Amino acid sequence: MPEPGTINGLIEASAGRHPELPALALAFSPASPALTYGELRDSSRRLSAALRSLGLGAGQTAAILAENSPQWGVAYLGITGCGAVAAPILPDFPDADIHHILREAEARFVFVSQRQMERLADFDGQALVVITLDDGGAGEPGEATTSLKALLASGSDLAPPDPSLAPRPADLASLIYTSGTSGHAKAVMLSHANIVANVRSAQAVIGIPPETTFLSILPLAHTYEFTLGFVLPLSQGGKVVYADRRPTPATLERICRHERPQAICAVPLVLEKIYKKRVLPALRAKFWLRQAVRVPGLRGLVLRGLGRRLVDFFGGRLAIMAIGGAAINGETEAFLREANFPFVIGYGLTETAPLLAVGALGDPSVAQGTVGPPVPGVEIKIRHPDPGTGVGEIMARGENVMRGYYRNPGLTAETIDAEGWLATGDLGLLDGQGNLRLLGRAKSVIVLSHGENIYPEAIEDRINAFPQVVESLVVERGDRIEALVYLDYELADRAAPDREGQRAWVGRLLSEIKAQVNDKLPVYSRLYQVREHPEPFVKTATHKIKRYLYPGRSPPASAGHPLSHARLPHHQRLNRVERRPAPRAAGPGPGLCPGPDLWRASRLLPPPLRRPVFPGPGGGADRGHPGRKFPPVGGCLSGDHRLRGGGGAHPARFPRCRYPPHPAGGGGAFR
Q: Using alpha carbons only, what angle is made at residue 567 by residues 566 and 571, rounded to the nearest 5 degrees?
């Protein structure tokens, strides 16, 4: 049996206590019954034996490229059970990044779902043993492609791995590649001891009784979901249910109605969407509700009633929702508190496995806007606090702090000092109750010529409170503060039936946002301009905007697209960028546009590089403008057609082009 200080030992101990309880299940899948704890233990042991027989040894790496499923968990425990290292890969990564990870990690084995199989087709690195988590497309054990089912069958005939080869607490368990919001690709090394220590810290704050149903909606390749949505519930005898795809709010409601979960790990975006799309419309739909929330005695009754309806949305049995991965909007948090919704807000990093601070459910000492005190076993201090405000860089120390960055001792030494303190790169302060208040990333702070520090996240929080705003980003341009705003274009459709009316609606809204937000800001941090951003921002797995893709300062004329060459990983850098005139056809007709070749070429790039956006007139509020010609990367890609309309979400029309723009956007963007 594995040592209790390892992930495998923690889960096998739980299996010994609850062998018949369900452990892992897929929602709406009667053909695939839940995997019990006893079956999970036996399957992972058989897989470890089979992997050993194929040559996977201690310290070697096996990757997992797949969506959440019970088989994902079996694969992970099978890998670590034979002393090897698991390298989970987010399915959202572009092909080039996936291939880079496989090469750098020197993975010899990769577990993959059928949906992701084609991502490996052009891999030109080391030889791989590909193991499908689904039954289709597999050969026999020992071939270059086999299946999890075949390996489990072969493992039942093999002797279990030598106990001396079982993982130890200090052994590396996970190699997690994350670019975060800074754009620098980093591989975080987490040991069994790191993850187990964090699970025990979470257990001390979040009590989970056996048979608690967890709904998993975030990718297991991210440490937040892996530690708190996989290892934590399995260590306590809980049942984890997976959706077979990323759920929309409507799908999420159906799954919750069917599974009736008691615990969910979520990112703020989930709650913010529900608040804007369901709660606010419900409050505004009836006159008496609008008046009641203004009366102190009635306000609490109304909001608590909405809180009960929100719990019903999640199945009616929700006992706790852990919110993390990004900052939550202040207005949404205030509503959840007044509505008596069962939630906690946590803070952490991939480098700390991940949890650093969280308040206990219902703890009145945890003030709004804070994430609570450090969890047991974790120390937090503020480095170089400002004498006036107390704000400084957050430093953390504990057994959950990573071993370092893979093959990057220089960056490791910069991040973790000789005393074990990890520099988080986040700014914050500790209040009088010992609760941690976050103010944003140190690298995101804007310092204008007057010398005052401006925290863009605080301004974005005010902008995002508008129900018409999906998300926003505050940047500096020319020593001035500007906001880029991505709007809810369904509301634009309802506001006006035609394009001119929608454009006017957008213009009025941007002016209103600027005026109302500036009224609440100090003079030195007020917005000079609010501009429409016509498509969603590129985000991390936990829905934090990748700020490095949207540099605030305008690039020099020679720099080309704002995504500068130096910001890209070496394997994605361009050798040359040329602008060539589009070939013209002899006459009207489909030959006018050379779009298909350029479109196909653009798909080879990571998604952020497919989206050069050229702002329209009027301060950039419009995506297109009648009569204006854009460079030859917009719309139909020929540069020869005039863009008509704007409003961001509505396609421009190019009647003479057989390669129209993407239906989700206007002209001027690759998709």
A: 80
pLDDT at 617: 34
- CA torsion through residues 475, 477, 479, 482, sign: negative
Beta pairing partners, 63? 87, 110
Please give the full DSSP string across 443-455, using - where no structure is assigned: GG-EE-TT--EE-
Q: What is the rounded distance in angstroms from the CA atom of residue 391 to the CA atom of residue 429?
A: 5
Whether the per-residue pLDDT at 133 is higher than 70: the answer is: yes
Contact 577, 562 (CB under 8 A): no
pLDDT at 653 over 50: no
Six-digit token pair at 127?
A: 């030889």
User: What is the pLDDT at residue 239?
Assistant: 97
Distance separating alpha carbons of residues 222 and 230, to the nearest angstrom = 11
Give residues with Cβ within 8 angstroms of 489, minimum separation 6: 647, 648, 649, 650
Cβ atoms 268, 323 nearer than 8 A: yes
pLDDT of residue 596: 40
* Amino acid symbol at 456: P
pLDDT over 90 (residue 296): no
The helix or strand, by DSSP H or E, that contains position 343, with its residue range, turns out to be: strand 343-348
Q: Residue 247 pLDDT more than 80?
A: no
| Residue at token pair 């959950």 | 400
Residue with tokens 């030195």: 524
For residue 401, the tally of other CB atoms under 10 A from its CB is 23
Sheet with 469-477: list strands edge to edge. 469-477, 480-487, 529-532
C-alpha neighbours within 13 Å on the C-beta side of residue 538: 23
- Identify which of 84, 136, 83 has the alpha carbon closest to the alpha carbon of residue 110: 84
C-alpha distance from residue 152 to each of 148, 539, 645 (Å): 6, 37, 58
Quote the Cα angle for 356-358-363, to 5°. Answer: 155
**Of 7-11, 35-39, 53-57, 451-455, which range is least confident?**
451-455
Rama region for 210: left / alpha / beta (φ>0; ψ in -120 to 50; rest): beta
pLDDT of residue 303: 94
Sheet holding 436-441, edge to edge: 378-383, 392-398, 422-430, 436-441
Top-confidence range, 163-172, 239-248, 399-408: 399-408
Token pair of 89, please?
């890969």
The pLDDT of residue 136 is 56
User: How many whole angstroms separate alpha carbon 88 and alpha carbon 177?
Assistant: 8
DSSP 204-229: HHS---TTPEEEE-S-TTSHHHHIII
Per DSSP, the three-state class of 345 is strand
d(CA 510, CA 529): 9
195-215 as b/e: b if 16+ CB within 10 A: bbbbbbbbeebbebeeebbbb
In angstroms, the Cα distances linking 314 to 212, 236, 243, 247, 278 are: 14, 22, 14, 13, 13
Reply yes or no on whether the pLDDT at 484 is more than 90: yes
Q: How many CA atoms lie within 13 A of 74 on its CB side?
A: 34
Mean pLDDT (the chain) is: 82
With cut-offs at 50, 70 and 90, classify the pLDDT of residue 400.
very high
Contact criterion met (CB below 8 Å) for 63 and 126: no
Distance CA 511, CA 621 (A): 10
Does 68 score more than 70 pLDDT?
A: yes
Please name which of 201, 207, 196 lies closest in space to residue 4, comparing C-alpha atoms.
Answer: 196
CB 484 within 8 A of CB 510: no
pLDDT at 465 over 60: yes
What is the DSSP secondary structure assignment for residue 120, as one 8-state letter? G
pLDDT at 587 over 90: no
Number of H helices, E strands in the chain: 19, 25
